[in-house]
Fold each of these.
Amino acid sequence: MISFKQLRYFEAVARTRHFGKAAEQCAVTQPALSMQIQELERTLGVQLLERSRNGIMLTEAGREIAGRANRILADTRDIVDFARRQGNVLSGPLHLGVIPSVAPYVLPALLPLVREKFPDLDLHLRETQTHHLVEELLDGGLDLLLLALPVENPEVETIKLFNDRFLLAMPKSRQVSNRIRATPELLQQDRLLLLEEGHCLRDQALSYCSLRRIDNIDTFGASNLSTIVQMVAGGLGMTLLPELSIHLECRQGDIRLMRFTDPQPRRVVGLAWRRSSPRKRHFVELGKLITQATSAQMRDSELV
């Protein structure tokens, strides 16, 4: 039988691609770690690692078993987490992942509420794109994600928190005659500025626009909405902004905002966690706090 220790050692080597770093992370000597992995290979009857002068690579079997080991270790952490959290709502460490198009608009209002209501919570934040967050969630590096739904993975459970409608943003100097609401056709008339590839906000905007032309789309390599807004204000084009961002991004008054005709484009923002996690009721409580934290920004956008 393979042991939990062997899986933990192998996962560390697979992640770091280095025996010395893996041994340091596991608080064992390098020979002891290497011996356990060799024993794991003998027990399984397959080679997991390719060792060479250039470093360590995973074999095909090693990649598959590393993925399974990650899930086993994550499930084990969930068991320990369950035992420790009995009776305590949102206490101890919580690793929260947030997408870049949500983090700067939710966290400043959320964090003071968390400190006030859950003083024993040790919150760790990670901001990156959706596909990275989901990978880290499944690997056990993150406990909870705040992102745009849906998340298409059978191992992930989600709840919806709120709808976040998109508005059309253009330079304030641009004149739009006799228009109360924007339409997708209006986006064809100027350069459309979007975040670089990999951001779900870009994909959602393109899905709504159903653009046939691609020569009027530009990213400039922008990875955050603030950069895009500055470009719009400078007359370089137009963009779609989630209403969650308007309170922060449009304070200077140099942007003209228009709501779209119905049905208005939107994204659904929610929480996601491993289906095996025992902390669902805790995550739901945090979701209520997130909804409370965003209510002010959403009320402000109603004035547009």
Amino acid sequence: MRMRPTLSWTPSGELPPGITDPEPVVEALGAGGVLVLSGAGISTESGIPDYRGEGGSLSRHTPMTYQDFTGGAPARRRYWARSHLGWRTFGRARPNAGHRAVAAFGRHGLLSGVITQNVDGLHQAAGSEDVVELHGSLDRVVCLSCGDVSPRRVLAARLEEANPGFDPVAAGINPDGDADLTDDQVGDFRVLPCTVCGGVLKPDVVFFGESVPPGRVEHCRTLVREAAALLVLGSSLTVMSGLRFVRQAAEAGKPVLVVNLDPTRGDVHALARVALPLGPALTTVADRLGVPVGEGTPADGAGLSR
């Protein structure tokens, strides 16, 4: 029997309550050397839903797992049909105030780095540099046979040509770029092979049930070791891929701060959880620090259509 990955988390005891004054975040950033760890919640104000918050996609959608994707052609057809449609929405998404604030903190030398669990490219579109994409990015495609990596926009153009007239109306778009379609809407969507070897193509993202590459994990652990504090933005920390860095920071005696409306699995390790929406909270933090955020940056643009 195939094991399903952990998708939800229920608090087993009393958690410290959230606060509504972001002053602890102001103090940490003011001291510098802060490592940001962001999750899907930072992109909700850009029109991309999160997994677990109010109205989160897990209430109506089970994400594709690596085991399902590699298990057979029907699952890959469903995935690519839905992802091809979702790609259009992701390509139109723009960085919001939260992304722009993080980029501004970086420009002003307050951050030691940014790790994101998101695959939407919005941190980079807002101007953040050297972002570690923990779970990869939807703007790349990898062949599972030969390892060739190619731009997603190239595959998107091929899929458009191979599936003329494919334009169903989705019930919703999910944080992984997967659109909600029925089997009838998927129909006989044509999936295309690798142009190099004819192998199976997969988005260059870490699916549920798949492991983050060890080298990437170690790089993130190094960033945690070198940081003065860890700031979690918009993540429930349900899955171990992000929670392990919170635990590492706490075990090393480094301050951990969380900005997330709902309780998280990492709250027991945090000095405080600021229970405010990301955009307004980080804008307030920037104002108190005298860091101008503005309405955009020269790099501002669509997350995945750069």
Amino acid sequence: MIADNPPRLVATDVDGTLLDDRDAVSPRTAAVISRLVDAGAGFVLVTGRPPRWIPPVIAKLPAGMVRLCVCANGAVLYDAVDDVLLGAHTLEPDAVRRLAALAGKLFPGCGLGVERVGTAATGRVELGTVDEFLTGPGYVHAWGAHDGGPASRDELVARPVTKLLIRAPELTSEQMMATFEPEVGGIADLTFSHPSGLLEASAPGVTKATGLADVAARLGVTAAQTIAFGDMPNDREMLRWAGTGVAMGNAHPDLVGLADEVTAPNSRDGIAEVLERWF
């Protein structure tokens, strides 16, 4: 339902939601975010992006707007001000190996990638770990150029990961999900944020909703006091969890059907159109 009172926590996806089609935050959206923060409401990014891809987003916003960021579809909680990880949920190597074998069976020739995290998005190495993206042979990145390092299949499955990516660009992501999900069981939580042949696997039960619930608990805010914006299936659980879930006008049909409200597209200030009712 649509809240009458101003939300105490505003959560938004990044790509296709906060960012417009020019990869920018519009002046109108930036202004309403400034007003809601000045009014005492919390503002949190909830994204499939890894921590190291957060600073460029924050640079597009007015200074001081964002501290807590839910990354990797809920697997990582990142403090963007102190550049430190506050928590991470990982898929263990045995699960990664089983998923990789299943993917190879169902999608012959598919590419695999893994996201791993350490203690800083800037690449500072501590305790032998670092925020990194590794890709195996044949992996075709969904967003063009990427910062992944090459790795053998054995290297990909050797350590816990926050996210396993399965790439088969000759298929749609919906086709991959329909084929893969029935075979996975409880090994992992599956979703996708790109339409062209990319599945994202996280630890069982880990979604953007669980990550956002963690932030809300830290801030003393309830689901009913939270509004969330999203555009792709990886936002589904978050929009269901929030007291008010808003799908963008450019959203995947799955989100349009479950949202409390559908706003304008990301290219036409959809977030601002809703938040200006209160701020």
